[in-house]
Amino acid sequence: MDIVIRRAEPAEYAELGGITAQAYLGDGLLDFGESDTYLVELRDVAKRAATAEVLVAVRDGRVVGGVTFVPSGGPMADRAREGEAEIRMLAVAAEARRTGAGEALVRACVERARATDGCVRLVLSTQSAMRGVHRIYERLGFTRTPDRDWNPVPHLDDLVLLTYELTL
Questions:
Q1: pLDDT tens digits, one per residue of 53-94
Q2: Using CB atoms within 10 A of its CB, is residue 57 exposed (0-12), middle (13-18) or buried (19+)?
Q3: Strand bridging mode 84-92 / 143-144
Q4: For a pLDDT cut of 90, what percent of the chain falls above it?
Q5: CA-to-CA distance for 54 and 87, rounded, in angstroms?
Q6: How do residues 13-52 score in pLDDT, each as one tens digit?
Q7: Strand partners, 101
Q8: Which one, of 37, 47, 35, 1, lies nearest residue 16 by Cα?
Q9: Cα-flanking dihedrals φ and ψ of residue 129, to 5°?
């Protein structure tokens, strides 16, 4: 069955929060594992949905992934500047990887960015270990922007997020 991308419904927030947290934990992306304070942010889909657009990937009637699309700044933006939209917290459940869900979520963000008045670029941050998703970004035309790489936790010298952009 096909993957459907749509806005997350409030009844799905807890499920998507769990998928997102588990994806980051399962991939070893959190320096402090289960005690990492970023888990609170990953699980809090309601907070994201209040200030950005949270999308889900649904396959066979089940939520299998999600992403936060930030159309124009606001509290959910990390790297977006004037005229830029941003992708945040892309996650797909382990059992649904390699089904096209991640790419479908990114494509949906690209479409939304193109439909946003005044938006000329879509940006995102990613960890170097997320090689699979880097291939998706590059296949869709995103390019690396090393001059925008950054460290969200300055006291952790080894945590540098890589940045990508897509000119629309």
A1: 999 999 999 999 999 999 988 889 999 999 999 999 999 999
A2: buried
A3: unpaired
A4: 79
A5: 10
A6: 999 999 999 999 998 888 778 888 899 999 999 999 999 9
A7: none
A8: 47
A9: -75, -10
